[in-house]
Amino acid sequence: MSRSASARANRRGDPPPAPEALPAPALDSHTHLDIVLGERPAGDEHGEWSADDDVDAEIAAAAAVNVTRLVQVGVDVPSSRWSAQLAARHGSVLAAVALHPNEAGAGKATDDALAEIDRLAALPRVRAVGETGLDRYRTGPEGWEAQEASFRAHIRIAKQHGVALVIHDRDAHDEILAVLDDEGAPEHTVFHCFSGDAAFAKACVERGFVLSFAGTLTFGNAGYLREAAAMTPVDQLLVETDAPFLTPMPHRGRPNASRLVPLTVRALSEVTGVELEELCVGLTATAERVFGKWEAES
Ligand SMILES: [Zn+2]
What we know:
It is a single chain. This protein is of the alpha/beta class and 298 residues long. The chain is built from twelve helices and eight strands. The protein has helices spanning 3-11, 33-36, 52-63, 77-89, 101-105, 111-121, 144-161, 173-183, 198-206, 223-230, 261-272, 276-291, and strands at residues 26-31, 67-73, 93-97, 126-135, 164-170, 189-191, 210-213, 237-239. An eight-stranded parallel beta sheet has the order 1-2-3-4-5-6-7-8. Strand 2 (67-73), helix 4 (77-89) and strand 3 form a beta-alpha-beta unit. The structure holds zinc ion (ZN). The site of zinc ion (ZN) has 5 residues, from loops.
């Protein structure tokens, strides 16, 4: 067992077995493979890309159930560099780069850090700036000003490079819309792990935003999310894991992985009434409009 695989097994146990394959290729629009594999670089060290066997195994396990494209998301400078390096080496992976809102709230969105995100956002395989946004749950009021300043800086970086914006919204629906309306949202703006109700979904859909649903859609107490998904047009709909977090039912509480996307896609098909294969095709089309074309893992 490699170092990272043993770290993973020690910390959380292995992800559950893969469900039945999807009938057509779909994707995971938001994953943290570095965290899944326990490869997240410590502190401010550079995350040199490593553990290729483990990464390959994760990508192959997802492709085996027709989850053939991934977006790997950074949350700080080291993981953003790692994400960009991974995407440069894997045709089926694109990268998103950013300083997470809770990092920003802790004062880590320095000029130097933002300059590095700006540099990474220019790379050809980096197709989004995110996850950025506002988190009013984990960051207390003392960090809100820094968090909003960082969010505004990330919006500008995304627009300057003509890439998508991937938003983290925790207990901050109205505040995020206000900032987006004020700055002017990028052409492609994605609400990662959409967490609002139907009314908020409507406000986002009307603005042309894309709503990405995670395993939370399958939770028993998430009727409001299913209502939100039901009123979202397929061309504004994405699916994701946010792995290793937010594992869909019936595996809630265990580590998540891209291979579990079919559980959430099936739930989306039920909720939206869009036939499963047609939905897979639609999700892929939405992803390629938002992030640009990229290779499917075969
Ligand atoms: Zn995330």
